[in-house]
Write a structure and sequence with these properties.
Blueprint (H helix, E strand, L loop, with lengths): L1 H36 L5 E2 L3 H13 L2 H10 L4 H27 L6 E2 L15 H28 L2 H24 L2 H14 L2 E2 L3 E2 L1 H24 L9
Parallel strand pairs: 1-2
Antiparallel strand pairs: 3-4
Length: 239
C-alpha cells in the first residue's frame, strides 16, 4: 500500500538521521577522545536512552500532517490506524535489530553494550531474546509517541491542561493509597510491580516475563490509539 510505503519512508529517514547523529557523537567522537587522551580506562556509549527518546519524537511528529494527508486522499480511519500499526511494528523490528547488532560490537575501550541486557538486569545468552526485548521496548515507546501526538492534535487550551492534570494525578493518588493501605495490600502491590518488570527473588530480572508485560502495554496503547483515531478530526492550527 502506498500509504505504508510513504509512512515507512518518513520513519526510515528520521531514523537514518538519528543513527548518523549517534554514530558521530556516540561512536566516532568517543574513539577520537580515547586516541587523543590515551586514557587508561574506557568509556561506554549506551544507545538505549537517546534512541527511546527519539522514537517517541519520531512517532509524535508528523501525526497531524500525515492524518490530514491521509484523510484528504480519501482514506478512512480504519485504514489510517492499520497504516500506523503496520509501520510502527516494522520500524520497531528494524530498529530493534540495529540496536541489538550495535550492542554486540566489542571494542577494547569503548563499551557499546546495553544496560538493560547487562549483568544484573535482563542478561540472557540467547541473542534472539535480546532482539525481542529491544523490539518490545521500542514498540511501547513508538505507540506512546502515536498516542501523545494524536492527543496533542485533538485537544487544545484548557481542555488539554485539564486532561493532562487528570492523568498526572493518577500516580499521586495511587501512591497515597498504597502508603495508607494495609500491609498485606502493600505486599501484594510490590509483588505485582515485581511481576510487571519480570523480577523474582530466585532468578532476578527475567527477560521473557518483562517482554510479555511490554507486549501487553503495547496492545493497550494501540487500543487507546484506535479509540482516539476514530474521533480524530482535522482542525486548524491555533484553533
Amino acid at each position: 500500500m502506498a500509504a505504508i510505503r510513504y509512512r515507512l519512508l518518513k520513519q526510515a529517514t528520521l531514523l537514518a538521521i538519528f543513527f548518523v547523529w549517534w554514530g558521530i557523537f556516540g561512536f566516532v567522537l568517543p574513539l577520537i577522545a580515547l586516541l587523543i587522551t590515551k586514557a587508561p580506562g574506557g568509556t561506554s556509549a549506551d544507545i538505549t536512552i537517546p534512541l527511546l527518546i527519539f522514537t517517541v519524537i519520531a512517532s509524535f511528529t508528523g501525526i497531524y500532517s500525515d492524518f490530514k494527508f491521509f484523510i484528504q486522499t480519501g482514506m478512512n480511519r480504519q485504514n489510517i490506524f492499520l497504516v500506523n500499526l503496520v509501520t510502527t511494528v516494522i520500524t520497531s523490528l528494524g530498529t530493534g535489530l540495529l540496536m541489538t547488532l550495535i550492542s554486540q560490537i566489542s571494542l577494547k575501550k569503548l563499551d557499546l553494550s546495553l544496560i538493560l541486557t547487562s549483568d544484573g538486569f535482563y542478561d540472557h545468552e540467547n541473542l534472539i531474546i535480546y532482539f525481542i526485548l529491544n523490539f518490545s521496548i521500542l514498540l511501547v515507546f513508538s505507540t506512546m509517541g502515536l498516542l501523545l501526538g494524536t492527543f496533542n492534535d485533538m485537544f487544545s487550551g484548557v481542555k488539554k491542561i485539564i486532561i493532562l492534570l487528570s492523568v498526572m494525578s493518577i500516580p499521586i493518588i495511587l501512591s497515597i493509597t498504597m502508603q495508607l493501605a494495609p500491609l498485606d495490600v502493600q505486599l501484594k502491590w510490590r509483588d505485582f510491580i515485581k511481576a510487571f518488570v519480570g523480577y523474582s527473588r530466585e532468578t532476578g530480572f527475567s527477560a521473557l516475563p518483562f517482554i510479555e508485560t511490554l507486549l501487553v502495554v503495547s496492545i493497550f496503547f494501540f487500543t487507546l490509539f484506535y479509540i482516539l483515531n476514530r474521533s480524530h478530526q482535522i482542525r486548524r492550527r491555533g484553533a
